[in-house]
Write a structure and sequence with these properties.
The chain is an alpha+beta fold and 450 residues long. The protein is 34% helix and 23% strand. The N terminus is likely disordered. It binds (2S)-(carbamoylamino)(hydroxy)ethanoic acid and manganese (II) ion (2 copies).
Length: 450
């Protein structure tokens, strides 16, 4: 391989895709002389949407089913209407905007992403894939194109795990997750508000608690493509416009609780303590150790939530709560790490005389591979638009991870500033976004004519 970049090697092993572009089954002569993106309008929309936030600019916080989320959803539905799409919503608030093709009975081609944003994050994560998708439809309409297969834009509910601790909630249900449909009957958020109460407050789940109605029918889509910022530095560093995602890494998340006796920080001497806080601290370091010991750069582990109770400076923590996110492109290797984390939790609990009161694996998802059909379409589109592109893997997860279970899937990445994401400094230039929109438009056109 050209530059001994360990991830390239891994990507070839992992996605089975030779680094060199395979021959495309899509014709190179596209009827599209010019695809014009309304960059000014798109820029304005990204800024306007970011104002529906529970955090002060430049940060964006937009949590599922909050007032700001409902306003942002209304904003998107309005834009879908202005683009001439027929709009519908399902019981959990996945929103669909459809442009009927000449042969509407054929399964449609879909694209989409999410607009929910974790606390104090940026304007572009997910948003580029929703506003960009609507603009891609406008671009095709402006060029006089008429699809054979219908084109459908999906705004997925709750890609971020912020409110109910479950990532990709909307797309998991669309992909038919019985377990999730069941679990949501008893799921509550940190304020003890139930999922259904919250959904109803946002106008969803009116008279349903059997969420299997959200499941997509077999063959609903002939292909699914998601446009997203890279959330990594590669494209920007290498000056490449488009990332052709060939695979998405396998995410997992774990909730852990320790319980000890707590007590007075002054009066209780060290030998007679069983400090739940120190148990949590030790486990957090053990997560790092097990991830580093996997010997692969592709294994990552994060303790993004660590809470102590009662949380008083002069009181020994009697309870501690950790939430662990670990990922890898190699599912086996990731599962080994999870097993080692569990053994450490047990070992630490017995060594420190605290109780391991919870070790719950919330999700342990397999990785997803992009489909040749979609990869070829994305590559020939980028080529026809004379945009530099490279194949790459996604270490962040996306709704595409679950759409791959019900449809041939592919993702398009665009560069973002220093690879920043999940923080206010997240940024993508309108030029890069416009390139992504053009490649998406052409890819959708190719797939819809297939
Ligand atoms: N794309 C993205 O940020 N997805 C996240 O929810 C993640 O944690 O990967
Ligand atoms: Mn995100
Ligand atoms: Mn995202």
């Amino acid at each position: 391989t050209c530059n001994e970049d360990p991830t390239i090697k891994t990507m070839e092993d992992f996605s089975g895709y030779p680094f060199q572009e395979p021959s495309s089954s899509f014709s190179s002569s596209s009827p599209f002389s010019s695809l014009s993106v309304d960059t000014q309008n798109l820029r304005k929309q990204i800024d306007e949407l970011s104002t529906f936030s529970d955090a002060p600019a430049p940060s964006v916080t937009r949590i599922l089913y909050t007032d700001k989320d409902v306003l942002a959803r209304r904003y998107i539905k309005n834009l879908m209407g202005l683009a001439g799409l027929s709009v519908r919503e399902d019981a959990v608030g996945n929103i669909f905007g459809r442009w009927d093709g000449n042969e509407p009975e054929l399964s449609a081609v879909a694209t989409g992403s999410h607009i929910d944003a974790i606390p104090y994050s940026g304007k572009y994560d997910g948003v580029v894939g929703v506003l960009g998708a609507i603009e891609a439809i406008n671009v095709l309409k402006r060029s006089g194109f008429k699809p054979k297969r219908s084109l459908e834009i999906i705004l997925f509910t709750s890609e971020e795990p912020t409110r109910f601790g479950i990532s990709c909630l909307g797309s998991r249900l669309l992909a038919g997750s019985e377990a999730l449909a069941e679990a949501l009957k008893t799921t509550v958020d940190a304020q003890n508000i139930s999922f259904f109460e919250a959904a109803k407050s946002a106008g969803y789940a009116k008279d349903h608690d059997d969420l299997s109605i959200v499941f997509l029918k077999e063959g609903s889509y002939s292909a699914f493509v998601e446009l997203h910022i890279e959330q990594g530095p590669i494209l920007e560093e290498e000056g490449i416009s488009i990332g052709i995602v060939t695979a998405i890494a396998a995410p997992a998340s774990i909730k852990v609780d320790f319980e000890g006796d707590g007590g007075h920080a002054g009066a209780v001497l060290m030998p007679s303590r069983n400090d739940a806080g120190l148990a949590a601290a030790e486990l957090a370091l053990a997560v790092e150790k097990h991830v580093l010991d996997s010997g692969s750069i592709d294994t990552v582990g994060t303790v993004g939530i660590l809470e102590l109770h009662p949380g008083a400076i002069n009181s020994i923590p009697s309870k501690s709560h950790l939430e662990i996110d670990t990922r890898d492109i190699d599912q086996e290797r990731r599962n080994d790490v999870i097993e080692k984390i569990f053994q450490s939790a047990e070992m630490i609990a017995s060594k420190r005389g605290v109780r391991l009161s919870e070790f719950r694996i919330i999700n342990q998802d397999p990785p997803a591979l992009s489909h040749k059909l979609v990869i070829d379409a994305m590559q020939s589109a980028a080529k026809e638009l004379n945009l530099t592109h490279k194949s790459m893997i996604s270490r962040a997860y996306h709704d595409s991870l679950f759409m791959a279970r019900v449809s041939p899937m592919g993702m398009l990445f665009i560069p973002c500033y220093k690879g920043y994401s999940h923080k206010p400094e997240e940024y993508a230039s309108i030029k890069d976004i416009a390139n992504g929109v053009k490649v998406l438009a052409l890819t959708l056109a190719k797939l819809s004519s297939f």
